[in-house]
Amino acid sequence: MVRAFLIKYAEIGIKGKNRYLFENALVRRIQERLERCDGEYLVEKEQGRVYVEALSKEFDREEVMEALTHVFGIAHICPVVLVEDKTFENVCRELVAHMKEELGDRPFTFKVFAKRSDKSYPMESPDICMEAGSYILEHMENAKVDVHNPEIPVYIEIRGRAYVYVTSVKGPGGMPVGSSDRSMLLLSGGIDSPVAGYMMAKRGVRIEAVYFHAPPYTSERAKQKVVDLARLISEYTGPIQLHIVNFTDIQLYIYEECPHDELTIIMRRYMMRIAEKIAKERHCLSLITGESVGQVASQTMQSLAATNAVCELPVFRPVIAFDKNDIIEIAEKINTFETSILPYEDCCTIFVAKHPVTKPTVEKMEASEKKLAEKIDDMVKQAIDEREIIEVRPGE
To answer: Per the confidence metrics, is the pTM higher than 0.70?
Structure first.
């Protein structure tokens, strides 16, 4: 009976002397994610492997598998049978019982793969493969050997205990969250920014987020939509601190004082300024946006350059070269798409110009922003000081 899961990682395995740091981050993230599952679990490292063992008599295998598929750093999840008595006859007996439970009576082809980390074991890996294959053929009429293209790879690992398994579920890959530093995501209610946050978290980045709210022009439903998106992302990233900034007065001031064709870029520049100030306060080392080249007027090369000019921190744009279908495909995979398309306006769409400038220059934007000098710094400080902070946790 399956009571444990072998966790295979890929990219972590090519790390050098500091590989243990990434392994430890993976173990911590697995432990955090399993806290939401019923039962108790032991997560431990063993010779280049990570194992999850159910300590409770009753546990939900599917619930555990679902949880593990949301942990970055995992390449594959393999439900395994632990064999304490690793005499060869007993290992084969447990293996066949496991195969019958997993595969049923359907015909299949197989090949045995063996790894003998315990060098005191009396059989070498090729012998284990050959003898185990013969045992399977003898005890399973529906099984046939195919060493070139097997339907079912059969695995036997001999360590302190023996581990046998035939099922492997693909994990999300990437690097475990927490193995890199913290970054601030500019999270809107659209499709792109949640995907951008997900993709950066996949590289081990711990995510915080800032959302620009513009009541009464944007409703409480629009705000709740962003909270819901943050919660969906947190299924992969862990808890997210969401900073909700009231941007109404700043937007109206820009609208009154600046050329209307420049509204989008100037508003965007002030969003970046505010996000960066909060990011520095929170010890984030970068900003993240969901911008994609050419998708809208504010995302032309010139517009992105004008926006970047106000930032000291690096700005990461992980979907920069994606077309919309690429982004939607990921959004559907991570379950944010249906929430993102709910018809609640965000502050960017409310104040968009009919004919926005597509080739702004930094010099022109700076000249227009001089009209704001009298009050804008105080307004920015007030918006930051009075922001609402919500701790968004998965499953809540």
So the answer is: yes
